[in-house]
Amino acid sequence: MSTLSAALPHLPILQVVVPLISAPICFLLQRAGLAWAFSTLVSWLAFATSVMLLRAVMADGTIHYEIGGWAAPWGIEYVIDAANAIVLVIVSGIGAAVSSYAPRSVLAEIPASQRGLYYTAYLLCLAGLLGVTITGDAFNVFVFLEITSLSSYVLVAAGAGLDRRALTAAYNYLVMGTVGATFFVIGVGLLYMVTGTLNIADLHERVPPLLDNRTVHVAFAFIVVGLGLKLALFPLHTWLPNAYTYAPSTGTAFLAATSTKVSVYVLLRFLFGVFAPTSGLMALTMDYVLLPLAVIGMMAATVAAIYQYNLKRLLAYSSVAQLGYMVLGFAYGSVDGLTAAVLHLFNHALMKGALFLALGCVMLRVGDVTMHGVRGLGRQMPWTMAAFVAGGLSLIGVPLTVGFISKWYLVGAALEDGRWWIAALILASSLLAVIYVWKVVEAAYLREPPAGRTVREAPLSMLVPTWILVLANIWFGVDAELTVSVARTAAMGLLGVAP
Amino acid sequence: MLELILAKYNYWIVIVLMMAGLYVVVARGNLVKKIIGLNVFQTSVFLLYISMGKVAGGTAPILTGKDEVFSNPIPHVLILTAIVVGIATTALGLALVVRIREAYSTIEEDEIDEAESLDMTADLAERRR
């Protein structure tokens, strides 16, 4: 007990260091079973840590942690407020669910010699994502972003055992991701040139008075485009569909639910926690660049999803559309808009996590996640398909699911701003989502299974984590008080509005 | 005009390298060349950081007890990290190229695209089956 209470003040660093140190240990374990057990244990520890941090932040306000006792701005500081505490919870929560689900799926999809390495890459990715989220230092964001990216390229390429296109998907992701991260680091360098600091809190004090400085404009452009590449903002999303389609099921579920969300968070942090534009060129960028791109992305990607035959690719396009909703939320620049964005960030991770895990079950039993493969599965794998349908309903935004809560706040924020046409487009895109979800439902429930195919329901070890995420979709859809209050606190914190 | 170019020559070098690197990434079909382009692009950023830390007439930042003008070491240290990141990216990129060559027997983008459209046709054939 005494060691636990001694560890409590160090939770912020433990959040990142535990998964980071565990990655090489996992590598040394070699055997897939051991590596899996270890990485699952670490994921749950990280989840417990993040829940404790969120509780502490909601109770006592922002936590500052100086690494190695070096005070900011000389040392690197970890800063946890409501905005990143909730992102930490969702990242580590999805990590815990996906890694609990993993062993059967990994056994089926990844060659024996690579399984231990796959878990190692997963742990590195988890550590990177948590690091990006928790740090209060702009350059540290870049370092963790690259740890995340490098390990996610490996996670995508691990699908090569099933389809060689995983390799080219990973390669394209690597090229685009590196260009994005390098753009980001150019922006950070230019900000350092003007302000002489890398600490995000210091930047927040020194950048806003310089909003007419041309170097700051250039930095803003580089950071927004760089992060736009990372978060797959339309039309910078071209790496995403292939990466999600060809990565192993568990890799797709983890990346789809976490990595783009963390990039959205970083963009939020820089837009509002550093630049905080209220007028001038940058505010115009939000209105005339980010907002239209978000709206076009939301519509175009939804339409693209309707025409997909491979369900993983369908969900990937739907992800691009959903990222449009998030960017839309913060392009309003209001407390309500930002609340909706943070809320949707959390909710969308739950939906996509559940949906991709359900597809992983289909992949295990049928080996084919296309419209053809799911034919007749409604009767043969009832629990799996029920999970998929529940996730799909959430994606559409049916009441009693988290999707409804997100849409409710997004539409509310749009109407409050008097942008009724955006509210109309959000509803239109939700109606289009009905089409692609219905196509899957039709194939699974109304078509006959291919003659002679007998498949069993997925094993419990995979169904339970899938259903935990599905139930979370419903739980937070019925009782949204917790998530809404955290999201609102986060939005107020980011905008610097007193509660 | 010439003076403007000469006085800020470090930035001009950075911009030229940056554009050259990006151009190679976009325009070349050979996967190894793309990685090299990415490298040049990253190198331009290293130079951007390193040259920004230089203070005219400054020495190395060593504590001598005397009041000396010294260059800002922080950008240099940052770039050490970025170089490590760059090496890791290059290594991973090249490793992927090796695997791609094993799987497709080519590292030319257009030939890979052709092979992938064949894969796509195979998928379609399976759909009809």
From TrEMBL, chain A:
| The keyword Methyltransferase appears for this protein | no
Q: Which organism is it from?
A: Thalassobaculum fulvum
Which compartments is it annotated to reside in? Cell membrane; Membrane
Segment forming the signal sequence:
none
Protein name, UniProt field: Cation:proton antiporter
Major place of residence? membrane
- UniProt entry tagged with the keyword Repeat: no
This protein's UniProt keywords: Cell membrane, Membrane, Transmembrane, Transmembrane helix
* A single BP term in Gene Ontology: ATP synthesis coupled electron transport
Kindly list the organism's lineage: Bacteria, Pseudomonadati, Pseudomonadota, Alphaproteobacteria, Rhodospirillales
Q: How does it sit in the membrane?
A: Multi-pass membrane protein
**Per UniProt, what is one GO molecular function of this protein?**
NADH dehydrogenase (ubiquinone) activity
Q: Which domain of life is it from?
A: Bacteria
Transmembrane regions: 12-29, 36-58, 78-104, 116-135, 141-162, 174-195, 215-240, 252-276, 288-307, 314-333, 345-364, 385-406, 418-438, 458-478
Family statement: Belongs to the CPA3 antiporters (TC 2.A.63) subunit D family.
GO CC annotations on file: plasma membrane
**Residues of the NADH:quinone oxidoreductase/Mrp antiporter transmembrane domain:** 137-431
UniProtKB/TrEMBL annotation, chain B:
Q: Which ranges does the record mark as transmembrane? A: 6-26, 38-57, 77-98
Q: Which InterPro entries match?
A: CPA3_antiporter_subunitC, NUOK/Mnh_C1-like
Q: Which terms are listed as keywords in the entry?
A: Cell membrane, Membrane, Transmembrane, Transmembrane helix
- UniProt subcellular location: Cell membrane
Q: Which domain of life is it from?
A: Bacteria
Note the topology in the membrane: Multi-pass membrane protein
Q: Does the keyword Cytoplasm apply?
A: no
Work out whether the entry's keyword set contains Hydrolase. no
Q: Name one GO cellular component term.
A: plasma membrane
Q: Which family does it belong to?
A: Belongs to the CPA3 antiporters (TC 2.A.63) subunit C family.
The record's section on NCBIfam families has: PRK07375.1-6 (NF005621), PRK07375.2-3 (NF005624)
* Protein's recorded name: Na+/H+ antiporter subunit C
- The record lists the organism as Thalassobaculum fulvum
